[in-house]
Amino acid sequence: MSLLETEVPITDVITTGPEKAKALENDVRAKILDMLADEEMTIEAINTELERRGEEKAKTTVRHHVNVLKDAGMVQLSRLEEAGGGTQKFYKSNTRVFSYELPESAETTLNDAGGTARKGMTELIEQLYADHGEEIEAAASEMKPCEYCETQHYEEFIVRELVNRALTELSEDGDLDALLSSSI
Description:
This protein is mainly alpha-helical. The chain has 2 domains: 18-93, Winged helix-like DNA-binding domain superfamily/Winged helix DNA-binding domain (Arc Repressor Mutant, subunit A, Orthogonal Bundle); 108-182, no CATH class. The chain is 57% helix and 9% strand. It contains 8 helices and 2 strands; from the N terminus they run ααααββαααα. A hairpin with a 2-residue loop joins strand 1 (75-83) and strand 2.
């Protein structure tokens, strides 16, 4: 006899590669990404900012975290500068992590907006496949299985990546802010 039985719908999908997922296993790395998304920083500056945020870490530990993020392709060396007979390295993030939770009331408040988004996404995906279906399928055929997944959703992953990249470009170019502020 079952004590509990309930439907558990998928309500969130995270698209990332295994290396990025492993890199984000540590919350300090998410903080570092947040800092480096807005400005380039040295290991020393990252360490100082982490301390300000309540994270006391040795510089070697901070360097390790930055290297993990760099190896995952989420942080890049952005500048080298001569300083005191040595070379100072500056790092910058090419990845932004939004780590928020919607308030409970958002489920009801955003219900109509969700319907509008779904309708718009349906139209977008239909148009995307009409214009670029062969390219999406060709890219999907070259993908390797995820080490964590038994079933593969290559085409879905590609579509999500295309939408995510388009939103990221709009955001980073300032166009998304302009669209949002002009709608208010």
